[in-house]
Amino acid sequence: MLKIALIALTALPLFAGFFPSTVTTSVASVSGKNIILRSSFPVNGMSGVVIHNYGQGLQAITNRIIQTSAGHATLGDNDVIEHDNLPTINTPVARGDKVIGGYLYSNVLVLAPDADSYAKATSSASRTWIHPDLYALYLSQEGEGIPTRQNLASFAKKYQVGLIYIIKKGAVVLLDPISGKHVGKKGISGLPAKAQFPFFMRFDKINSGWFSKSATGTYYNLMETL
After folding, report:
1. What is the pLDDT at residue 123?
2. Ranges in the chain annotated CATH 3.40.50
3. Which own/partner pairs from 188-197 qualify as long-range (CB within 8 Å, at least 24 positions apart)?
4. At what angle are helices 149-159 and 132-142 packed, to 10 degrees?
5. Is domain 107-223 in CATH 3.30.2320, yes or no?
6. Phi then psi for 132, rounded to 5 degrees?
């Protein structure tokens, strides 16, 4: 079963500007859940993964980590790969383990107020853009009607999403769904006064279950909570 869980890892590209760079470093020391990195992630609040080398060309992601201050991180969950048929890896983090900060930051979910702003966002950079329809379907299956940091984190883990691109009133923020922290921000103008609620998608509404209350509010107010 262990061999099934082991994955091939390839070098990840570096991003510049608004998107924090994906970086590779290693563990300098470990004390409980506290980790010191040999080099820092570009932004505090970035999450990453720890990769252990088992020898004979076999390596696996064992844990998530979150940078709390320059070069310092805290140990997160070991549920990096969610699959009912795969075992949970319990290998402890050790000195010398490889670390990728900004893991999967190329996979980005967009929460936008309308189709036009969504199109502008996805044409602004070369990324693997995750359409909000997929997230809307996930919420419907989970019996939820609006985005929360909790269901964004669950969605990100299930669908291998690294960042949430959130268009707010006057600004765009990048939310790392694993850490729950903003890791990028820039100003924006020309947004519509009237926005689709809870976010742009190609469905009229999210059917959140027989006993769920209908979600109410406005797009821009909702995005301020994320």
Report:
1. 96
2. 107-223
3. 191/113, 191/117, 191/167, 192/113, 192/114, 192/116, 192/117, 195/113, 195/114, 195/219, 195/220, 196/113, 196/114, 197/222
4. 110
5. no
6. -65, -15
Query: pLDDT tens digits for 20-43?
Result: 999 999 999 999 999 999 999 999
Q: Provide the CA 188 distance to its chain's centre, in angstroms.
A: 22
Return the closest-CA partner of residue 130 out of 102, 116, 110, 106.
110
pLDDT of residue 90: 78
**What does DSSP say about strands 47-55 and 98-101: parallel, antiparallel, or unpaired?**
antiparallel
pLDDT of 106 higher than 90? yes
Can you tell me the distance from the alpha carbon of 144 to that of 210, in angstroms, rounded to the nearest whole number? 11
